[in-house]
Amino acid sequence: MVVNQLGDAEIDRIFHALSDATRRDIVTRVLRQEESISQLARRYEMSFAAVQKHVAVLARASLVVKQRSGRERLVHGNPEVLRTAARLLGEYERIWHHRVRNIQDILSEEDE
């Protein structure tokens, strides 16, 4: 079960990072193509420092990886962490479907 593979703090960092629209947009962009923090900063109506902070939140959650290339810091996405988050949500969905099936079974028994 994925839930057992990740600690609560790690799960909290992933979903906290993904709770912000700007950070989700950054993840989408750097999954498509590696970008420098300067390139990312030009895309948003906020300061360079604010974009750096968003990237730092994503890096702490391992959703992106920063690498130095000369004077730039390049950012690329980490699809494995997104797959882990998707598996976790899939487990919640399976639990929910199991619960719905149980309710349906109880209701069908009452109809008989």
Chain-wise SSE layout:
Layout: H1 2-5, H2 8-18, H3 21-32, E1 35-36, H4 37-42, H5 48-60, E2 64-69, E3 72-77, H6 79-111
Helix pairs in contact: 2-5, 3-5
Helix content: over 70%
Structural class by helix and strand composition: alpha+beta
SS strand fraction: 5-15%
Low-confidence stretches: none
Which key features would you list for this structure?
DNA-binding transcriptional ArsR family regulator; elongated; HTH_ArsR_DNA-bd_dom; ArsR-like_HTH; DNA-binding; alpha+beta; 112 residues; 3 strands; 12% strand; WH_DNA-bd_sf
Protein model, in words:
The protein has 112 residues and is an alpha+beta fold. The chain contains 6 helices and 3 strands. It has helices at 2-5, 8-18, 21-32, 37-42, 48-60, 79-111, and strands spanning 35-36, 64-69, 72-77. Strands 1-3-2 form a 3-stranded antiparallel beta sheet. β2 (64-69) and β3 (72-77) form a beta hairpin. One of its GO terms (molecular function) is DNA binding. Keywords: DNA-binding. It comes from Amycolatopsis viridis. InterPro entries: ArsR-like_HTH, HTH_ArsR_DNA-bd_dom, WH-like_DNA-bd_sf, WH_DNA-bd_sf.
In short:
This protein is of the alpha+beta class and 112 residues long. It contains six helices and three strands; from the N terminus they run αααβααββα.
